[in-house]
Design a protein that fits this description.
By secondary structure, chain A is an all-alpha fold. Chain A contains 5 helices and no strands. The model of chain A has no long low-confidence stretch (mean pLDDT 86). In chain B, helix 2 runs parallel beside helix 3, helix 7 crosses helix 8 and helix 8 packs across helix 9. The chains are: A mainly alpha, B alpha/beta.
């Protein structure tokens, strides 16, 4: 039965669990998340190229590696999509590999959106003093 | 008869036990493991693929290794097999990290040579405890090897001089005679006796006698090639086995030993003590089927001749008459 992905509303990062895994150091968690974000682009590109070339071993290895780093940082959506990519590589299922790569991209966008601090609300300008007639 | 290369007895485990190789293709996982391991006092050597990890395991003195199962080029189980295939003196304790948790995977990992197995994501307190187990195993293994080394030494070396003991030097002579026969090479033997040793013991005491024997043994060790063997045959008699040496070369070595010891002095209370050697040479050259017994008999007979003819000299088997000091050797 197809899974309704749109129903996935859980946050892309379980910050409490991730903090626990990095020894409660928020700065170190930020460092690891930056590293993850930096490494993700080349990894996704490698997956796309591998799918294009039907290189299932690379799909499996890259998927596996992304699954590990996603699990370490408590990123459940990315972990699940990476696991699907690994599985698709193992089963040599190109359609499934393509769809999991697409999901990885979406989940990553969700993560970066979640990590980017939203702009501060604009302060209302003070009321102008009324001019006396 | 290669001797195992080991640390001196009783020394503490070296810094290598605080060094962990982390082989993992994912940078986030490496960094996370590194942070935890460093906070527990370990030094981390990272490797991002199996081939780099293999180069480190082969060359560096790494005793603890965390290997990811799935890595590009060489995977974790294959690395385990390679490490176990190495004839390294020291044991490397390996923990495989993997997301595979089926019992057949665990069995496959352990059969490949891993000592332990952890599923990912790694629980760090558990990892800390498992590394401590690894250290205990390494310490036990080191202790066992040290005991083996000590036992080997006790069984093969002479306690006073640390030369090979009688049994071992005779075994070595036997092996050399067999090897020489096969290759058509001669084997030289020198039987050595310290001149007037009984008088040294009677005059200066047995402790001084022991010092004389030890000093002579040290000279012999220094004066021969690394692949020659020197053993204590008994009392003040020593035996030197010279692979690939005919009678002429054997006599040259014996003469060098005689001269070295003749020049040496040993400080004893009240005076500087001189001592000399008598040496009997034999060689297996051109004679098939020479046995250990025959070589010993011939060198012993030559030694007897050297002593009969005034000591502090070299004599050789098949010599018509023993050579006097400084006189060219009669063939």
């Amino acid at each position: 039965m197809p899974v309704d992905r749109s129903a996935n509303v859980a946050p892309p990062l379980d910050r409490r669990e991730a903090l626990e895994r990095v020894g409660g150091d928020p700065a170190f968690l930020e460092e690891l998340l930056s590293l993850y974000v930096r490494e993700f682009g080349p990894a996704l590109e490698a997956l796309r190229q591998a799918a294009k070339g039907k290189d299932f071993q690379t799909i499996r290895e890259r998927g596996h590696s992304l699954k590990g780093s996603s699990a370490n940082l408590s990123l459940p959506g990315l972990r699940a999509a990476a696991y699907d990519a690994e599985l698709a590589g193992r089963e040599e299922n190109l359609a499934s590999a393509r769809s999991s790569i697409e999901r990885l991209k979406e989940e990553f966008e969700r993560l970066t959106g979640f990590l980017t601090p939203s702009p501060a609300p604009r302060r209302a300008s003070p009321p102008r003093p009324r001019r006396r007639p | 008869m290669p001797e195992p290369k080991l640390r001196p007895s009783g020394s503490a485990p070296g810094p290598a036990v605080r060094t962990v190789l982390v082989a993992e293709d994912d940078l986030v996982s490496i960094r996370l493991l590194e942070r935890h391991l460093q906070s527990w006092g370990y030094t981390v050597i990272p490797a991002r693929n199996g081939e780099d990890a293999w180069a480190i395991l082969r060359e560096a003195d790494v005793r603890l290794a965390l290997l990811d199962w799935m890595m590009p080029k060489v995977d974790g189980p294959e690395l385990c097999r390679r490490v176990r295939g190495l004839s390294k003196d020291r044991y490397t304790y390996i923990i495989l990290l993997t997301s595979r948790d089926q019992s057949e995977d665990i069995i496959a990992g352990l059969e490949a040579g891993a000592d332990d197995y952890m599923t990912k994501p790694v629980h760090f307190l558990e990892l800390q405890a498992r590394l401590q187990t690894g250290q205990r195993i390494i310490a036990l293994e080191d202790k066992l090897r040290q005991s083996q080394h000590d036992l080997y030494k006790l069984a093969t070396r002479d306690g006073l001089t640390e030369l090979w003991n009688r049994t071992t030097i005779l075994e070595f002579l036997d092996e050399e005679l067999v090897r020489g026969r096969r290759l058509g090479h001669p084997t030289g033997v020198i039987m050595i006796d310290l001149d007037h040793f009984k008088e040294i013991n009677d005059t200066y005491g047995h402790l001084t006698g022991d010092r004389v024997i030890s000093k002579a043994a040290a000279y012999f060790q220094k004066s021969v090639r690394p692949y020659d063997r020197v053993g204590r045959y008994g009392g003040d008699e020593m035996l030197v086995v010279l692979p690939d040496c005919g009678l002429e070369e054997t006599i040259q070595v014996a003469e060098r030993l005689r001269k070295t010891v003749e020049k040496a002095r040993l400080r004893v209370p009240g005076r500087m003590l001189r001592f000399t050697l008598s040496l009997g040479c034999a060689s297996s050259k051109n004679e098939a089927g020479r046995s250990v017994d025959r070589m010993i008999r011939e060198s012993d007979r030559a030694l007897y001749e050297a002593k009969q003819n005034g000591r502090n000299r070299v004599a050789a088997a098949r010599d018509p008459r023993p050579r006097r000091k400084g006189e060219p050797h009669a063939r």
